[in-house]
Amino acid sequence: MSKPHIFVSCGQRTEEEKRLGEAICQTIQDHGVFDCFFAESQHNLNGLHENIFDALAKSDGFITVIHRRGNVSYGPDKCEPLDRASVWIEQEIAIAAYIQRTAKNDLLTAAYIEKGVGREGLRELLHLNPLEFASSDQIITDLKARLKTWHRSSESDDLGELQLEVFPGHEGSIQVKRLTPILTNRGKRANEYSCTLEIPELLLSFNSAFNVLEVQRRPGYRRLQATEKTKQNDPLLRDNPVKMLTQDVAIAHLNAAQQEQVLKQNVLVSAEIEDRVYSLTKSCAGIFTETQPVQREEIEGPDAQFGYFHFKNKPDKPLCPKCYQSIPPRAVYMGPRDQRAGGIMRFCPVCNFTVTEEVLRQVKRQINYNPYS
Predict the structure, then answer these.
(1) CATH of 5-147, one of 3.30.160.40, 3.40.50.450, 3.40.640.10, 1.20.272.10
(2) Percent helix, strand, coil in the chain (nearest 5)?
């Protein structure tokens, strides 16, 4: 998987502007987390406009440099002068703003404006808060500082991978999901590494036990962190997946309102291997096999034996009767058959509804007791 990338919107009218764009790209690449797109460096048969539209749509970050292009005058007496920016750059800013609004994805943004350039068009409505510059060195110095705070990353690259393993389990009488982040190093032996698991606090409210890996919380979330120190300073060897920590989460103990709230949240996992950063997001709905409300014509049931519902094309995978008959209906697969003292049962991973499919038969043995024998 390729690295997330940053779109560089910089003028190319002069050689100095081209060199600045290339210097910005080199600074981004030296940072090591992101790749970059700069139109000057593109050499293929696609139209330039196709490259730019595609790159903007796929970008995780946007850096724009607004250079002066000319002076215009407004008003009836032409006495309101304005130093105008590049029309091309203004268009790229507008496209990026539109993509961010429609995709609901916040771009990492840095804006730089040449001293004296005025505001007009869409920029009058945007809060870019550009840094005013007089020399290219000011831009590179500020960008290096900003990049240190930008940590958006992908789940994997050529040198490593972050995964989240999810297995069902039980904690006392409550059915849980066991979350285990797994870190794989594909580069050289790494001695410094870490992994942070951020979990909605409602999923942990069934258990009051303190976890020694817990670090500073943020509102609504609890954070667990493992590092090389908690792993006895063992190095990450090449192509050797390491389970960083394990944490049980549950939803069955929550009331309906709390369940609805937490199923809209996500579990966040981030990791570092030396100076490389990885992250992934898993929805709570996905962890607890939750799906969107379904159309009733897709479902058959209830069956006469256990009251199960099922999708027409999956008759061997029963759905929880309680969840399906709630309002709105939710299609949640029952858990696997589980051998218990009372028999063979299935549990719903969301509401903990239980169905006993087979009752263990107890054989009564007759005892002939004779005190004189």
Answers:
(1) 3.40.50.450
(2) 25, 35, 45
